[in-house]
């Protein structure tokens, strides 16, 4: 029996980042940059107006009101070909380039036009630079716009687009296969035959993979037959970056996953000192990690969270591989008995009026009772012992942050 921190360290040490490659901006959301990204262009690329109004020489508005001759109109997207001379103004729209000669914008609300638009009366003095957005005000050519190791969010993609990036070098989204094992587990709508159960783990694990930002690949189900499992895992390791299996890693007569993983690659299995999710198998087959998660649905989910997800995040270049943790208040306590294990209690976390996070057990805590776990949004980490007193503090992993 081994502490979960040790297991996690062993797994992380075996899961190297994937080879970076260039992907199109449209495919890059959530990916992590592999190198710093530099701007070759300035943003804005030219000085332009922040407001609709008139481009003027500020000096001409001294002692306003001042009457100026309107010599042109400039829309956004137009290039200015007409200088603004002394006593002149150019009618101008937000985003249009500042015409040469002008050094300020007077907003339209502080003017009135006259002579059918041939002249404009500026009602207040302008200062040089008013409402002018200088070239490079956001980004200068040569700036690093996105640091290496950044998880690209929507605004990062906007920034990269603003300086002309079509493709970005990132750690690719991991392709993660999910394989169910078990003779009793069935798919489809048919009525259950004696001894059969429906597959809850594969849909759940595929969703966990997708929700974590990886590409989920449905590998179907393998019977509890050593050759069938070997063929399925061999194929999976050949076409996925990582594989998650569920079931068959315990000590039952038909738990063949460990034997298969031991045959195919560098293999370890553990009895982890946690509840749920004690058994865990792990192998590296042809460089691809394979996570042999337990079959009990709650165990599969907790095991994915504790071991597979951090490793997959590391493979995809994330610097922070862990879910965020908070110190919460266990409103009703989380009582337990000593058993040498850390308990990961599924809890509902909420923000209290006191500014603290409060947690309550989500319901039944059996490793086969997924229904109650579905209501949870956090895992309370309850150390070995008698548990947490009502209103005492407990550390919790936030699953939905
Ligand atoms: P195992 O780890 O294969 O010994 O399975 C442990 C328990 O989890 C057994 O009660 C299985 O029937 C159940 N189980 C295994 N795989 C699944 C699955 N994909 N969906 C739901 N229950 C499962
Ligand atoms: Mg089984």
Task: Walk me through the structure.
By secondary structure, this protein is of the alpha+beta class. It is built from seven helices and 29 strands. The protein has helices spanning 4-13, 154-162, 201-211, 226-239, 257-264, 297-315, 370-374, and strands at 21-24, 32-33, 37-38, 48-49, 53-56, 66-74, 88-92, 104-107, 111-114, 119-122, 132-133, 144-146, 167-171, 175-181, 185-186, 197-198, 215-222, 242-246, 266-271, 274-275, 279-285, 288-293, 325-330, 334-335, 342-351, 357-361, 378-382, 387-388, 392-398. It has a six-stranded mixed β-sheet, with no helix packed on it. A six-stranded mixed β-sheet has the order 17-14-18-22-21-19, with helices on both faces. The longest helix has 19 residues, at 297-315. The radius of gyration is 31 Å and the shape is elongated. The two termini are 31 Å apart. The relative contact order is 0.13. Magnesium ion is lined by residues 181-182, 224, 247-248, 295.
